[in-house]
TrEMBL record:
GO cellular component: cytosol
Organism annotation: Holdemanella biformis DSM 3989
Any GO BP: transposition
GO molecular function, one term: nucleic acid binding
Record protein name field: ISSag9, transposase
């Protein structure tokens, strides 16, 4: 059993699914390897209240006396020409007009499971409902986690006392280290904390009052990319990939990877269809998991959904942090049909060799270390149009463009903006990019 471990999105999805199936907290806890009290706390802390599912005949009334109520003309200003009971009124709610109104609360919400997930009466029940939603719970958890680790742990009185003590000394030219050493009985914070308070502007003393601090160049923080789901490889490793392909030998495999330019700048998500050697790319502003998810959401939105599921049935990628949220890619469709994401073994780029080999043609046009910040999606489409119009020995002299068009038609290539380049016009040199920007500049000059 996991102790002192935070729940991840996969755990929350399991909880939501098990609640829908009507399982007990103890059974749910065994599925996610946590204590049942953790499950109980998780559900109660992340409830979503829903008010828009009432049947029309009881839209305005949740009173416990609804069935037996015989009241008429409770409102002094009632203008109804009908002599109906007040509980049937569609103008004024009983909660605002009747002194005897008492809202009825479902017993299911006051004890386990505390939510309406899995209840058969959800659609016809007029009472207020509460649901547990895994994605909303994860977002709420992330916000809480971020808030708990931000700000400063000091009261206003303590801050004022600290300011009155150290700000005059700093303005006299004393260093933070000198002040903390000689006033240790009054200062209970480390030198690093005091520097943080000054840099945040919480004290009267400013960084300019500390000449050595101003003169020094700030240290560059190493960017550390964290995985969205640390358990993303479970059930998706390379052995699982082989097992799936053994059961589904006709599945199309799409290998994906990231091509980076200058560190921290724009990058490209490359998608390679192994048997056809066909590869195209999507420009991304940042190398993070969100941009990868957005790329697949874009493809799903512009493509025929049946063709999308055919081409992206199996996705094989490496262990980069940008690919650490497979659940987002696998949950694009609510109909149960979804891509299957698998991972190569660490440091085994040869396990998706087709994608890596096709990168060599791309690198003939865009060498490593190239700053891709000025690049546009139009330029990326042009580069891959030339790459896919390059004849391959493995395709008996045909091009990936021709092979892909023969199997899946011209329409999908037009959607991806990949066009045919005549054999003698194919360019696999950096001046293809220079030529593009030159033409763009001439177009802008013509406009102006």
């Amino acid at each position: 059993m996991s102790h002192f471990k935070h729940l991840v999105l996969e755990d929350r999805i399991t909880i939501q699914s098990d609640l829908h199936d009507g399982l007990s907290f103890k059974k749910i806890a065994s599925h996610i390897n946590h204590d049942c009290t953790t499950v109980s706390s998780e559900i109660r802390n992340h409830l979503t209240v829903v008010d828009d599912m009432w049947p029309t005949n009881r839209k305005h009334n949740r009173c416990v006396h609804y069935v037996d109520c015989k009241k008429r003309h409770v409102c002094n200003f009632c203008q109804s020409i009908k002599n109906n009971l007040c509980k049937y009124c569609d103008q004024v709610t009983c909660s605002k007009s009747c002194p005897d109104y008492k809202e009825k609360v479902c017993d299911r919400l006051s004890k386990a499971p505390y939510v309406c997930n899995g209840c058969d009466s959800t659609r016809r029940c007029p009472l207020q409902k509460k649901f547990y939603d895994a994605k909303e719970a994860q977002l709420d958890y992330e916000r809480t986690l971020s808030d708990s680790r931000s700000g400063v742990m000091i009261t206003d009185d303590e801050l004022a006392e600290l300011d009155n003590l150290i700000s005059p000394l700093i303005k006299n030219g004393q260093s933070i280290y000198h002040i903390t050493i000689n006033n240790s009985d009054q200062i209970n914070w480390s030198s690093k904390t005091l520097y943080t308070y000054i840099n945040k502007g919480l004290l009267q003393a400013k960084p300019i009052d500390m000449p050595r601090a101003v003169r020094r160049k700030p240290k560059k923080n190493k960017s550390i990319n964290h995985k969205v789901d640390s358990k993303c490889r479970q059930g998706r490793n390379f052995d699982d990939y082989h097992a799936y392909m053994k059961e589904h030998p006709d599945s199309i495999v799409c290998q994906i990877d990231t091509v980076e330019g200058k560190k921290g700048g724009k990058c490209i998500l490359t998608l390679c269809f192994v048997t056809l050697k066909f590869q195209f790319g999507i420009l991304r502003e940042h190398n993070d998991s969100r941009s990868v998810t957005q790329a697949f959401q874009y493809l799903y939105s512009i493509m025929d959904h049946n063709l999308f599921h055919l081409l992206f049935d199996v996705i094989l990628t490496d262990n980069g942090t940008e690919f650490s949220n497979p659940t987002a890619i696998e949950s694009l469709d609510d109909n149960g049909i979804h891509p299957h994401v698998f991972y190569c073994e660490p440091n085994r780029s040869d396990q998706k060799g087709s994608c890596e080999n096709d990168h060599s043609n791309f690198r003939r046009i865009v060498p490593k270390g190239t700053n891709m910040d000025p690049y546009t999606q139009e330029l990326i489409d042009l580069i891959f149009s030339h790459v896919n119009s390059f004849s391959r020995t493995s395709l008996n002299g045909h091009t990936p463009y021709e092979s892909f068009r023969f199997l899946y038609g011209q329409d999908i290539l037009d959607l991806w903006h990949i066009r045919y380049i005549k054999p003698n016009d194919v360019i696999l040199k950096p001046f293809l990019v220079n030529q593009f920007f030159k033409n763009e500049g001439e177009c802008h000059d013509d406009v102006h």
